[in-house]
Amino acid sequence: MKKNLIKILAAAGMAVLTMGALAGCGNSTTETTTAGTKAAETTAGTTQTTTAAAAATTAKVTADLKGSISMVGSTSMEKLATALSEVFMEKYPGVTVQAEFVGSGAGIEAVTNGAADIGNASRNLKDEEKSKGIVENIVAIDGIAVVTDPSNKVENLTKDQLIAIYNGTTTSWKDLGGADQPIVVIGRESGSGTRSAFEELLKLEDKCKYSNELDSTGAVMAKVASTPGSIGYVSLDVLDKTVKTLKLENTDPTPENIKAGSYFLSRPFVMATKGDISKQNDNVKALFDYIHSDEGKELVKSVGLIPAN
């Protein structure tokens, strides 16, 4: 009887110990869960605070920028400059971007004289321009397309054939496999960045025999589209179905071919400043920050150009 009582008491003791251990484990789990929840809440709070701080900083910078930016220059850069101006003014409502399209030479002269913040040029700067403190900021690469009227049967020109057309050696499309029809040679006016780049790339400076010299890219497109036997050169981003685009050395003027170096008529789009970008006012610096950003590079691509970097 006494032995049975001892066994009963021992079993009861073990039960009490087991219940205590389970209670302890339960408390430990609760404490761990509570601590983890608090840590997660702390992390989430920190993330929210950091995000809010970044948003506040961006909002402050946006609000702080006020005033205007003036761009003057290349008509070939009109599509890019217009798109850039519109997007930038949406991001910075306090800033007005004014753009004039009067030719590359006039743009460089304007920035040199302090009449503009930025001089847009669709060509590389000349040494004499750089000697005056003008800095060449390349923002995009453009191809120069050679176009004819839509009825022209010629599909491709070699570099030598193109040179012969523009220096006046070849005067009929018949000599190039086309119709027995005079070639009407159309180009841009003196001072045009497109003309300068075209003539420099073909080593035709002051050697071209133009039938018409027009003062804008749009005028060249319209003249070529409406003139039988005509040929002209335009910026890649304005091409449409009103004209026929020729291959050069059996290569189409596409961004891919230009980037690969297989299409020989290409040139830079320059946003020139007087002094380095770092020396410009905050509005101008912000504009360059934007065009060099990932979003800015996508904008450059959207108008048919190749980002510079």
UniProtKB/TrEMBL annotation:
GO terms for molecular function: phosphate ion binding. Pfam families: PBP_like_2. It is found in: Cell membrane. Residues 55-295 form the PBP domain. The keyword Protein biosynthesis does not apply. One of its GO terms (cellular component) is plasma membrane. SUPFAM superfamilies: Periplasmic binding protein-like II. Residues 1-23 form the signal peptide. It is a lipid-anchor. Its main location: membrane. One of its GO terms (biological process) is phosphate ion transport. Keywords: Cell membrane, Lipoprotein, Membrane, Palmitate, Phosphate transport, Signal, Transport. Transmembrane segments: none annotated. The complex is composed of two ATP-binding proteins (PstB), two transmembrane proteins (PstC and PstA) and a solute-binding protein (PstS). Part of the ABC transporter complex PstSACB involved in phosphate import. Involved in the system for phosphate transport across the cytoplasmic membrane. Belongs to the PstS family. This is Phosphate-binding protein.
